[in-house]
Design goal:
With about 500 residues, the protein is of the alpha/beta class. It has 3 domains: about 60 residues; about 290 residues, Purple Acid Phosphatase, chain A, domain 2, CATH 3.60.21; about 90 residues, Beta Barrel (OB fold (Dihydrolipoamide Acetyltransferase, E2P)), CATH 2.40.50. The protein has 14 helices and 19 strands. The strands form 4 sheets. The chain has a 6-stranded mixed β-sheet with strand order 3-13-14-15-17-16, with helices on one face. Helix 3 packs across helix 4. It is globular and about 70 Å long. The two termini are about 40 Å apart. About 5% of the residues have low confidence. Bound molecules: 2'-deoxyadenosine-5'-monophosphate (D5M), fe (iii) ion and zinc ion. 2'-deoxyadenosine-5'-monophosphate (D5M) binds next to loops. The site of zinc ion has 6 residues, from loops.
Amino acid sequence: MREELLAFVSERGTLLEPDAVEFLLVQRDPIAELDGFLRSCPETPFVVTLEDIRHAGEIAQQALRPRTPLDLRPVAVVATPSASFRRLGEKAADGHPDVRILRDITGRSTCEGTLEDFTRYFRHRFQVLRGMLRQRRELAGAQDIAKARRSTREVRIIGMVADIRTTKNGHRILELEDELERIAVLLPAESAVAQEPVVSDEVLGVVGTVNAKGLVIAASLVRPDLPTAKPFPGTLGHARVAFMSDIHVGSRTFLEEKWSKVSEWLGGADEVARSIRYLVVSGDVVDGIGVYPRQDEELTIDDIYGQYEALARMIAALPDRLAVVMLPGNHDAVRPAEPQPAFPMSIQKLFDSNVIFAGNPSLLSLEGVRVLAYHGRSMDDLVSAIPGLSYQRPLDGMKAMLRLRHLAPIYGGKTPIAPEAEDHLIIDEIPDIFVTGHVHAVGVDQYRGVVLVNSSTWQAQTPYQKMRNIDPTPARLPIVDLGTGQAIIREF
Ligand code: D5M
Ligand code: FE
Ligand code: ZN
């Protein structure tokens, strides 16, 4: 495809930035995509950039939307479809699927894991998140740590959390680092700031005063967070997207009967089922091989390709109108370090052409609605670091990710992170829908206008989960309306 694309480019007398080439190559029809963009230009540009192409798709979508602020509808979350949810749905087969992968790591990984790579990775993380924090009114005029250290008035600093400890008097002390210096920040035991959860390696702002010993006494902590609620963008129509993850095909505990039920329902006459045009599958699609000790004792299919072949048959049996987007998780056959690339060709070719493969995480566009999909491995680290978080309440963990504007803020825990040149786990663009899996729970909610989905599992409790008291909520299908952002969960 690469050669065909480049031939097309030279035939049209323009140039394509390397990033734009990679971006196009992961789209469904790279040439049609580029052709569409070139047609929208009054004259052929000298060079086409990644930004040009990304934005072209969005502008086309926006042009289709009505100008009246139908956009201001609140996001409602309900457990059973109301009569209006049923009635509003459009027959998904009546429209063409429109899926774009706006951003993921596939084909762009550059890191080798050297020390320089790590330094560069963390510098990038720091700089981008500092940029976001500087937009916050509370941090206007924030100073470098070196300068703040000498200040006698109120200081505002931004740093990455290098260490967190508690003193014997119950105060907490953070070591905060910027590019040049490090400073200790005291969260006094009796103050409200001491109650706020802080995790290692997050980038935050501190407003406080410096005492005689050069210690910052914090008055408040500032997170990059999301700006106040934004409206759900909303498509003109009411096509729906359903979410799944953690199918774990090949495991003894894979719930075959539940799968038959959901598969039958999706292919049946139910109005809501027929309104589902997209299915996003966020990782752990098979159980894998050698993922944990003595896994072979818990497998019904002990060949990795055999597992993907079985899944491919299951997906092929779903109705043709469904455009399926599939990303990997920690049980899948790609590198475990995040960001993970899409499945290799040897796996992709087992599936029908209605399946689109994306990396973990990836930012997708479904008819212009932006979906941030992430398997959710970092939840393991967040649950151990933040008091009150639990596997049963993954939506709280997702809100924490949005507040910190990072999918995997804690480095060096259970979530392996590849030191790419840029930190792809930063939540840079604010999505309209944010979905995670991994914890085998389910839920829908919203945070500041972002619809949150945790996408259940199709695996029963495993012996390991039983030992750890993790009680999964399998066989639930969250469904979101792309017109309104309204979300429901269907149980099978
Ligand atoms: O993870 C499924 C669930 O089990 C999820 O809640 C995490 C938990 N889990 C799995 N393995 C571990 C380890 N090693 N430590 C802590 N928690 C774990 P899955 O990715 O499907 O195996
Ligand atoms: Fe899983
Ligand atoms: Zn997982």
